[in-house]
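Running co-folding for zinc ion.
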Amino acid sequence: MPVASPPHNRAARSHTVIRVLLTNHVLSGALIGALARRPAAAFAAGAASHFALDAVPHWGDWASTRHFLRVAVPDGLISLAVMGAIAALAPAERRPAVVAGMTGAALPDIEKPTTLWFGWSPFPAAVDRFHVRIQREAAGRAPLELLAAGGLAVAALTALRRPAAYGRGSACGG
Ligand SMILES: [Zn+2]
């Protein structure tokens, strides 16, 4: 029987596919938090950015769980370090929005470690199905992902260093 075999067996990959690097979600959340006015808005926009980022082409589609973990574990540790560093760098008055943006952007991926370790996802099945369905990933996109990390880091740090573009300065008080 002439059956074309796919490059990998998609069904066998289960849900241990990494999506966008968590580090990139955290960095985009930091950028959003740096631009947002309020923590609640930063959190919501951060969570929305997670799904938007997952839907653009990114790195992933691992051949094996071992390969996945070789990237996912350092990525998880780096994103925690990045969150800590950016929270420390953020001016005190903007820190709550920045932390909320990063948390919102990272949170949708919390089901990855819980599924891996406990076989359990905190989200409704429909959310997890949606999360898997929107992925656009392919092997060999590491340079793109690292480029995105660099760009997002520069943008987030620039936004943090810039004085807030809004606020009490100019127009009010009259
Ligand atoms: Zn995701």
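Result summary
The helical segments are 22-35, 39-54, 65-89, 95-106, 111-118, 125-133, 142-161.
The pocket of zinc ion is lined by residues 19, 50, 54, 108-109, 131 (CB under 6 Å).
Job closed.
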